[in-house]
Please model this.
Amino acid sequence: MGNFTFEEMNLMCIYNTGSRIGLIDALTEMRGELSPEETELWDLTDSTLDKLCTMTDEDFTELGLYPDFDQ
Model:
């Protein structure tokens, strides 16, 4: 179900709109605002979007996107 990294999960928590499509739209919009120097965030966003686009809405709802501030 996606095999998201800790960093990808945190990114999704920050931009989560409550739906998979909404999150894809939010991350795509944010990605368009990145500068060329922000390569690490660019790569993180791309890998997250790739995984979100291949999963189902049902799988997305099972992710339980809540930030884990203890890690």
